[in-house]
Structure formats: structure tokens, C-alpha cells
Sequence to fold (772 residues):
Amino acid sequence: MKQYLKIDEWSIIEETFDPQTQEISESVFSLGNGYMGGRANFEERYTGRSLQGSYMAGVYYPDKTRVGWWKNGYPEYFAKVLNSTNWIGIDININGTPLDLAACTVSEFRRELNMKEGTLSRSFTAALADGKEVKVESIRFVSMARREIGAIRYSVTPLNFSGTITVAPYLDGDIRNKDANYDEKFWNEVEKDGFPGGGYLTLKTKKLDFHVTTAMAYEIAVSGELLKADAETVLRDKYVANIVKVPVQQGDQVILYKYAASVTSRNYGLGQLVEAAQSALQSAREAGFATLLTEQTEAWKDKWKESDIIIEGDPSAQQAIRFNIFQLNQTYTGEDDRLNIGPKGFTGEKYGGSTYWDTEAYCVPFYLSTADASIARNLLIYRYKHLEKAKENARKLGFAKGALYPMVTMNGEECHNEWEITFEEIHRNGAIAYAIYNYVNYTGDKSYLGQYGLEVLAEISRFWEERVHYVPHKDKYVMLGVTGPNEYENNVNNNWYTNRIAAWTLEYTLEALAYLREHEDTRYAELVDKLGLLEEETDKWQDIIDKMYYPLDEERGIFLQQDGFLDKQIIPVKELAPEHLPLNQKWSWDRILRSCYIKQADVLQGLYFLNDRYDLETKKRNYDFYEPITVHESSLSPCIHSILACELGYKEKAYEMYLRTSRLDLDNYNNDTEDGCHTTSMAGTWMSIVHGFGGLRVQNGRLGLKPFNPGHWSSYSFKVMFRGSRLKVTVTDRDITVANETETPAAITIYDKEYTVGGLGTVTSQGVPAAI
Ligand code: BGC
Fold:
């Protein structure tokens, strides 16, 4: 862990150039707009260590996983998010010498990610080997207002010489994926052209034929005057550049404005791509850099209006939470229900850009509270659209009915590459069902059940029905051979969490059916018919609910993570010598599997989801048993523990866990930020504040709050959208204020007292419990 970033409430700032931290910074300073995004690579050539990364949402490559030990039921491929055309590139030559920060002396370096406005800027002075010095300033963004557009203003000023600066904006599609077998390249060129003022490049992916056209245009000004200079066009394989030679006097500022438009065959017909890119580009160019920048600032202002969290008295915590919110808003914007959220967003290639249960378990709550309900709804519809594929997936694995959603997916098909861990995590089906409950409970939009939800719930329930089996001598249903959320156990019997979430899904499905029968009888009849749902099925579901087996230890009063868990040698993590940690780097897989150590919340994940079903004592006993043997080696772990610790009144522990999640990437806590940021766990950080310190739960149509101040901040406030209202909740040591920023009244509970916060009204509850 190395803290080299400057603390600032609205920005991430780096003030020295250090090649050692370059790849970490490339991840942290990434930009995205839900449609495309990329790492914070330099615009000019850089020959030091770097992962050049530009990604288009939904564009991937199905890499083969067929290996010698392939078995029935293994996925056909592992999906890889594809690194696509580098649109930011600008080659700079100074009197014939390339500007490359790896080959010159750099001073006054500053890089800033301005989270308030959604821009990345950089400035530095570079002294070349021959003593020539230039000052460079750049600012760029991917537009939130015009998804297909990215824009850069890049200036070079000769400080101690006159001569020629050559500026060459280019598009380079000849890029490599970091995640590639044998350095294989994934793109073929379709067409390209270059002309004075710009060019375009169309590439298509191997196998799936995704087409991506990127078009660029540029303008150059010298000391404020637009330059009308000839450009030499260079066309190479998957590469287009315009080279412009600019004669300069010492002190002249050469400014290049580069605009790029990227469009894909996901949104346009093949014959329309070039025209679509050119037309988006043309209109961006006509608007001009200043207007695009204003649009960007305005778009981010709107995002912050809905999702900001303010922490007073702790600038480091303030910066961290804004960083998490910023990255989440950059990653998913919710307009396109074919898209989802990869665990690294647009910041790297690990996890292949695919969708995991992270979306339902962690991200849905964030978008539910900080954006219009349609955004979270689109995340749910994504899974609805994959229902047929999930049914096929269950058939492939030998199930006669039901749906098993994939653990890792791009298009609904399973595409993980770690059979023994990932496949058996069938608990993901439960998270997908839970997200439907969460959405309906939070928004009150019960119409979702009839429109989409019930079909998904029923098919998941059918899967559980077939996956459990009845053991007569126990008079119980059991579930064998699964992996729970704790991936440091494989192929266990009766994982408590999986059994519990399965039985809960059956319960909720029956509840949804009863609701539809009573309130939407026509739709109910249609759905029963469409699903071919039989009474004997729903009777069986009830029987499973009644007789599900749950491993318990009565003496300790805890749920057992799985059968036989207590046969393990239980030694708290704090008794392990530090050199053993992290286990995933220091221990063999064999040793990990037979140890008691837990990667991430498992039983506790269930207690978080089904929070209102268990009393505090039960939660406490389980927390006290499991947390000390949890190593939190998944970034998804600390947040759930922080939330439960809040509920249990373990304030210090809650804060400690919060710190582990909130600055995970900014402080490179897990030593892996160079691979990309932990984007899905950022939603967990948000949850730690809002569900943890804020105690937010929704019950019976009321937004319940049980806030307390974790003790290190003078106050904090967060915003939540709730059923048409937007509420700003401020917590100080003395009181809790809920201000309604909209005209729509909201029914809330603060601790046990009910209030209605009128349109534009405010409610204050005196006295915040020092400890809960
Ligand atoms: C976690 C999983 C998670 C995946 C992607 C793994 O390390 O154990 O729960 O789905 O990362 O974030």
C-alpha cells in the first residue's frame, strides 16, 4: 500500500511523475460514460510500463476454454472485454525527437481527475535529452451528454527554443489485450480513410464480428490563431494519422483540439457506421470544445445532485466516497438494458468485463437510491432478457426444468473460466431473485412482477426445486455439492446461505403469485398458462420451504456455513503471522480449502439480505463467530461486515471495515489496482454509509433510517431517491435532518418514530444515539 495521491474533496491528484505507479494511476484516473471508457493513458507516446486500454461496453470476444480436461457442462468460452481503438493518441515530435515521458526529465507533473466535472487533466514540463524544454497541458473527457464523443485539448509550449513541433493525432486499432492467450489479436480491419482534418477506422472483432468505427477530427491553434496547415495523412494496417508540422517561436502555445466519435454495430447497421460516426463527430465539432465541456460539467452536476455524499471533517473520507460514486456513475448509466456492470468497469480487463452476481447483490441498491427507478429496472430486465439462455443453461447441466443463470456472462451464456470455483456458486440465482424483491420493495412498483419478475422467479424456483433433494431419514431437503459466496470452500454440502436463499426465493415466488392472483387476475392467468405452472409445483415449493435443512450449531447458537464446518481447526485471523496474508498469494489452494478462513461474507451475506428475519442476538452470535475467521480477500467483503457491525453497535469495527472498502483503490490496498479498479465493490462502499452508518432499510413502504455518526466525522449527509422524492439525510452528533428536495412527500421512520417529510419540507430528529 502506497499513498501517493493528494487528498482533495473533489479531485484525485497526483503531483509527481513516477513510472512505478503509472499503471495504478492509469486505473484510478480512468474515464467512462456508461457506453465507453478507458484507462488514463497518456495522449503522447509512452514507452514505459503501461496498459493501454479503451473499451466499448458490450464489445467482447469469446475465447475458447476447451481444454484436455473439458467435461460436460463446462462453458464453451470465456468472454473477454476487448481493448479497442485508441482514440486519444497524439504523437508529438520536437525538432524530430518524439516526446515520451519515459525518455525525458519530467518536472511540475500534475494529473487531476476532476470528479465534479468529469474531466482528466495533466500538465508537466519535459526536458528532452538535447536540453529542449516544453510545457504540456491537456484535458480530456468522454462525454456524458453525447455518449459517442470523446474530446481532448492538448497544448505544447516550447520554453527555450524555436523550431518545429510536429503534432500527429491518430487512431490506432492495432492494439493488444492484456488478457490474451499467446498475445493473440482480436481485431481485423474493415475500412479506413484519412484526409486533412481527420479520418476514420472501422474494425471488426474476430468470431463475433462486432464492428466499431472510430472517427476523428482535429483543429490546431497557435497562440490563439487557428492554423491552416497542410497535413500528411498516414494510413497503415488498422491505423490512421494526420501529421501536421507547426513552426513555433519560443513561448508559442500550440493547442490541438481532438474530437473522436466511436460507434458500434450494437447500435447501427453495418452500412451506417461510418456515416453515424461522422455525423456525431461533425456535430461535436460544430459545438466546439468549450460547449462540449460545459455540457459535461452540466451532466455531472445532475449526477451529483442525485448521488453526492458529503462528509465533513475528514477530507480523505470525503474524497474516497466521491471517488466510489464517480466510478459507479461512469460505469453504468442505465439507458441500455443490454448492458451491465463488469467488476472492473472500464478501468481494466480482469474479469473479462462480464456480469457477475455483484450487480444484483451490490450495485442494484446503489442505482435504486441514486437514480431514477428505470435505471435499476434496466439491470433487472437485462436478466429477464437472458431467461431463455438461463433455461438452456439448466438443460445443458441436466435439469429437466427451471433456469440457472450464469455466474459470469456477457450475453446470458455461462462464460466463466474457473470451473471448480465459479460453476458451483449457484447461489447467484438467489441474488437475482433477491434483486427483484429489492426493486419492488424499494420502489413499490409491483407491476414489475406481472410484467417480468414472476417469470424469472418461477423459473429460478423450479431450478431450486430440482436441485434440492429429499432425505427421508432426516425428513428434510438438502442441497449437495455447492460453493457458497465464500470461494475458499468448494463443493460443500448444505451451504447455509445457499439453502436459505433458495428457500427464501420459493417463499417470495409464492408471495408474488398470491399478489398477482389477487390484484392482476388476468395477467396471473396468462402467466400461469405461459409458465405451465402446476399446483403440485407450488405445493412442492411450500414443502421445501417447510422442510429445508439448515446446518446449525445449537451450542454456539450459530448457523453453520456448511455441514461439518466445525471439524475445521478454528484459529482467528489475528493469530496468523502477517507473512501468511493474503492467503490467496501465500498459501496453496489445497491449504486454503481445508482451512477455516473465509474469503468474504457467506452466512453473514444471508443475514444482511434477510435482515428483518433475524433478531440482533442471532446476528451478533454469527458475526462474532465468523468475522474473526474472515480474511476479506474479496473486495466485496468489508462492506457487508461494516453494515452488520453498524447494526450491532460495533462502531469501531464498522469504521475499520468501512476504511478497508472506501480507499481500496486510492490506496491500492490489495496491491492490484494496476489491473483496474474494484468497481462493483464501490457500490458496497456506498452501502456501508447509507445502509450501514445511515441504517437505511425499506419496510412496509416506509424509508427507515437508524443513523449514527461513526465518530470520526463532524457530520455526513447522503441523498436518496425514494418513490418520487429525493431526500437529503444529514447526520451530526446532535441530530438527524431529512430535507426533501422535491415536491413529493415521503413517508419515513427515524429510529422508531414515523414522519412525513412534506414537499420541500424538512424533518429533524433530535438526539443521535452515541452507540446503538
Ligand atoms: C468474488 C466473487 C465476485 C467476483 C467478481 C470474486 O473475487 O469472490 O464473489 O463475484 O470476485 O467481483
